[in-house]
Amino acid sequence: MLQSFQRRDVLMRVLLVLVVALIGGAMVITLVPIGMGSFGDRTHVLARVGRQEITTAMVEQQLREIERVQQIPAALRGFYANTVFQQLLYERMLEEEARRLGIRVTEEEHAEFIKSRLPTVFAGDTFLGMDRYTAEVQSRFGMTVAEFEDRVRLGLLETKLRRLVTDGLGVTPEEIEQEFRRRNEKVKIEFVRISPAALESQVSWTNEDLARHFEENRSSYQVPEQRRVRYVLLDREQIRNQVSPTETELRNYYDTHRDQYRVENRVRVRHILFKTFGKTEAEIEEIHKKAEQVLRRARRGEDFTKLAREFSEDTTAQNGGDLGWILRGQTVPEFEQAAFSLPVGSLSDLVRTQYGFHILKIEERETARTKSFEEVRDSIAATLREQQSLRRTEELAEKLAAAVRQSTRRPIEEIAAELGLSVQEAGPIGPGEPVGALGSDANLQNAIFRLRPGELSAPVALERGHVVVTVTEILPAHPGTLEEVRERVIAELRKLRAVSLARARAEELARRAQAGQPLSSAARALGLTAQTTGLFALNDSVEPIGNASQLAAAFRMKTGESSAPLSLGTDWVVFRVLERQPANPQELAAQQETLRNQLLEEKKTLAYEAFRSALEQRLRREGKLEINQEALARLRGPIGS
Predict the structure, then answer these.
(1) Cβ(83)–Cβ(31) under 8 Å?
(2) What is the CATH architecture of 186-207+489-581?
(3) Candidate from 70-74, 210-214, 336-340 with smallest mean pLDDT
């Protein structure tokens, strides 16, 4: 466990826990409430640990600290609140256990830790004063001195408890050797991945099948409330097409913005980068040889763009090494010197910079000048057209809003006639469905489903422009008939049958392969395709399967042996082991210390997690840990909102 100072504050731990939890690997304490306890009318108390209480106000304070850094999404507010609560609860449990064991943090330990983390507050051994100390804590950690020192104290307590639990642990040579083999043994497989999505086109059904599936699942086919609407749209694109700047306006704009059309000396460059940063001298020598080979190929006339895509280690590789236009002062001196000294179309020698070796190709060059009016006329016209159409749109949008403000019960046709717009219709529209040609927009959806029939909405800003909408008919929610939900029934039946078909294909493929038929030919007979991996270890990623740990069975199988069907979610994989490569014993010595440290840390983590779990259970049994279920349920709602 990192020390408290390194974690800094509850905020940072909460954010870390959130990210880890969202990717499915959280190790947060999960405290399941088991009783109300004797809280009485103290509804603001969430939990009691020994003589200490955790209150709603304490959690709300931590949430406010988080919100000073970033906004908490409404949908995740309950999760944040519960995570803060769990962290506070763990800290109180920690203090309770330390008190029971007589473990404490001395003033000397506390001061020494702070001194090691805030050396700028001391001149040698001399403390520079509370003002300096307070300012440093506030600027670096965003908290008061009292909060900071409490964080330090808790962190040191946790460190002492962790050491008490884990200091006696060790790793045996046998464990190291076993982990070495597990990480370094490699296999190569031939595999077939069977995806239901790829089989949906092969699924068939009859009308009787649809009717039966619908009847068996009738309750899930509800048709939500739908609405028919009429609307007037102030279309931004139409207004833009109606605007045409005059020649005088174009020239006036050019004259007043002439500086914008000043072009500095610039050159357009492609390059291939061979990175050397962080490499040893021996590695750099090999990289240099490789770069020279690629340079010779480029000079023989090979396509520079293709060479860049294949060999460049820069982010521009996918664009064929194109850096675009560069000005003086934008790149490191060595690169700039080559770029601005070479003629158009030429290749550089190898150019060494702090990043590595570069090969440059000069695509274009421009000398400093001011572009003529004719060169920039089209861009000026586009700029003025955009400005003028924006002003015109804003003017009409204000007229549209004013017309609605007069009365939200005016016929929409009157407003359309006043502004020279047409009335259009859409529907029936259900929640989340696109509104005709207007597409899907959450604000428009909200407006439509809040309106009463005949009522006008306020103008809603869309990507296309501004729209005012009125509801002409409301179709209540109701159980759907087969005809109404036919497409949904077909889609769901197709998916279900494709899943069953994929499993059946996988089982048949495995049966044939285990009976001795080559996997590739068995796959072809079933309309499937076999693929072959390279050698991979258990910790590797295997495309397109994913993490190799899903193929752990392959490391226990013999060469030539075929697997049973392996489920990967809804997909299935059948594979055959083509080759096994044992771990090289000579590499054990080089990895031994790293493996020892990693295994020891894993053991310590597991031991401390077991200690935390046991601590929670014991405190519950002893009546020293009580959770207020009702208050906790309210906490998971919109606290502070």
Answers:
(1) no
(2) Roll (3.10)
(3) 70-74
